TrEMBL record:
MF GO annotations: metal ion binding; metalloaminopeptidase activity
Entries under SUPFAM superfamilies matching the protein: Creatinase/aminopeptidase, Creatinase/prolidase N-terminal domain
Cellular compartments per GO CC: cytoplasm
The protein's name in its UniProt record: Aminopeptidase P family protein
Name of one Pfam family that matches: Creatinase_N_2
Organism: Qipengyuania atrilutea
Domain Peptidase M24 C-terminal: 541-601
Length: 601
């Protein structure tokens, strides 16, 4: 029997927990790889509670339950999760572990799925609970799976080779580099669990998670240069087997845990930021020595090869032409009041799909009108969808997945008739000034992203305003749209990566914003590439940013008198490059629109 209400699902989970002798259970948004975005089979939190955000968790006790989300989802969680069933708790003011320690009785047995929680989370929760006389129990099989009758199966899509002409390096070369690292550190093997790392190491892509071209799989890489790939057999084609070669043995995904348990006496490196607790438990129980060390693929993956850099430029040019068609369409159609957020997102997908090279979107499009634009991570659905009001700001954050690159762009535009308010123009101009400040930055090699963040905020700070998200994240090469380890954000904030040194070849977003709750939101986002600054007479290596995203900005939201001559020059140079790159792909009314929007300021 299928349970239609979230109350019935919560009741069923409590009954299952009681059968297992558990007094509570922790439900994260996660999969066995600690992915940011997870497949439908792993959407346990959404099934249980109705929450559709990408970050959050729930705790279910016998007599109460709570939802935990950060400031991005304050509004969304209240719209989607029944307050009669769950208390709303704000992270980082509290956490699931702290809440359990305060609300569970002494002697309580709290269950968790060790294949969905990180190593560090489990260790810290165990210590905290021990002080309160609470036991943390790793469950044998997820209790939600036991009551979720129509749970989808994991994707059965095949994995495919990613050609060296796009990657710029062979898989054999990458595996040899990892083997050298293992020998240098005195390790016998390392477990590579992050799906984008697996994809990068093997030059392999898949279709198991929406918007991210990865295949559900693990790698066990050995110091002799060989590797074992654990993957469902139906995903493996003769073409993939040939691509992987003799040094990579392909094993069933179900063999992974037994393989870990067979490494007795071996020293195995595990990245605690990417590995679930179940992996460390299996290794330790099998007699392996577990050492915590960084995933050896993370940093080299972030430093793009020349081929990947050029692929990004080519993908951006294609994506830019689609964006021009879209922005012209918005300008002409949205003022009628008959275009809604979902319809606008679908139209953008249609324009991107005119390119045969498009494989997918790189995330769910943030198509946000009026007050919805003030929610930086707004996700439109049938329930939240509204018409784009005439005489308002519309924000669209979107991207495409192409074989040669992953795009991510935000444009904020004025929807007529009439003119934007003086405040809207002021705020947008300050966001633009911060965007330009960062785009024009030169800085010593290995400067941290945290050291650059204030450049994007300083003009907003002068007006006594700010924004609550990071300024920049790494971006993959036909991989994850959010890629570590680098990040541009306030130092010491909630986001990891701000202390990672920036290096030549890294790609990041440049996306300052401003959000007026309930009224409007502004964000300007381009992707940038770290390049050699080539400063004559420089004492040491310096870096600068090459802007990769090429799409016009809305001049109706800019106050020219607030811009310096340098900023006006950046605007004009940028739009000249936009025109030069995109014009050959456009004709008719689209080309006329581009020409008009790229005129000097």
């Amino acid at each position: 029997m299928l349970m239609q209400t979230h109350e019935a699902r919560l009741d069923a989970l409590r009954t299952e927990l009681e059968k297992r002798g558990l007094d509570g259970f922790v439900v994260p948004i996660s999969d066995e790889h600690m992915s940011e975005y997870v497949g439908s089979y792993a959407q346990r939190l959404q099934w249980l509670t109705g929450f559709g955000g990408s970050a959050g968790s729930a705790v279910v006790l016998k007599d109460k339950a709570a939802m935990f989300t950060d400031g991005r989802y304050t509004v969304q969680v209240r719209e989607q999760v029944d307050g009669k069933l769950y208390d709303y708790e704000d992270v980082p003011k509290t956490s699931p572990a702290k809440w359990i320690a305060a609300n569970a009785a002494k002697g309580a047995r709290i269950g968790y799925d060790a294949w969905l929680h990180g190593v560090e989370w489990a260790e810290e929760a165990e210590k905290l609970f021990a002080k309160k006389g609470i036991e943390l129990v790793a469950v044998d099989g997820n209790p939600i799976d036991a009551v979720w009758a129509d749970r989808p199966e994991p994707s059965g899509a095949v994995a495919v080779p990613h050609e060296d002409r796009f990657a710029g390096r062979s898989s054999a070369d990458k595996r040899a580099e990892i083997a050298d690292w293992l020998k240098e550190e005195g390790y016998d093997a390392t477990v590579i669990t992050a799906l984008d790392s697996v994809a990068w190491v093997l030059n392999m892509r898949g279709a198991d998670i929406a918007n991210t071209p990865v295949a559900l799989s693990y790698i066990l890489a050995h110091a002799d240069g060989t590797a074992e790939l654990f993957i469902a057999p139906e995903k493996v084609t003769p073409e993939l087997t040939k691509h992987l070669g003799n040094a990579v043995s392909v094993r069933e995904r179900s063999d992974f845990e037994p393989a870990l348990a067979s490494l007795k006496g071996k020293t195995v490196a595990v990245d605690p930021k990417h590995a679930v607790a179940g992996i460390c438990r299996a290794l330790e129980q099998g007699g392996a020595k577990v050492v915590h060390d960084a995933d050896p693929a993370v940093l080299p993956k972030a430093i793009k090869t020349p081929e990947e850099q050029q692929g990004h430029r080519d993908a951006q040019a294609r994506d830019g032409a689609a964006m021009v068609k879209y922005l012209r369409w918005i300008e002409e159609n949205a003022p009628s009041g008959e275009v809604d957020e979902l319809g606008a997102a679908a139209k953008l997908r249609e324009f991107r799909g005119l390119s045969a090279d498009l494989k997918d979107t790189s995330f769910d499009t943030i198509s946000a009108a009026a007050g919805h634009a003030a929610l930086p991570h707004y996700k439109v659905d049938e329930d939240s969808n509204i018409p784009i009001p005439p005489s308002s700001i519309y924000l669209c954050d979107s991207g495409g997945q192409y074989l040669d690159g992953t795009t991510d762009i935000t444009r904020t535009v004025w929807v007529g008739p009439g003119e934007p308010t003086a405040e809207m123009i002021d705020r947008n101009t300050r966001v633009l000034k911060g965007h330009i400040e960062l785009a024009l930055a030169t800085f010593p090699d290995e400067t941290t992203g945290g050291a650059l963040d204030a450049l994007a905020r300083i003009h907003l700070w002068k007006a006594g305003v700010d924004y609550g998200h990071g300024t920049g994240h790494g971006v993959g090469s036909y991989l994850s749209v959010h890629e570590g380890p680098q990040r541009i954000s306030k130092p010491g904030g909630a986001f990891p990566g701000t202390e990672t040194p920036l290096r030549e070849g890294m790609i990041l977003s440049n996306e300052p914003g401003y959000y007026k709750a309930g009224e409007y939101g502004i964000r300007i986002e381009n992707l940038v590439l770290c390049v050699d600054a080539q400063i004559e007479g420089s004492e040491g290596k310096y870096l600068a940013f090459e802007t990769l995203t090429l799409v016009p900005l809305d001049r109706r939201l800019v106050e020219k008198s607030m811009l310096t001559p340098t900023e006006i020059q950046w605007w004009n140079d940028y739009h000249a490059e936009v025109r030069e790159t995109l014009a050959p792909q456009l004709d008719g009314a689209d080309l006329e629109w581009l020409e008009r929007e790229c005129l000097p300021l």
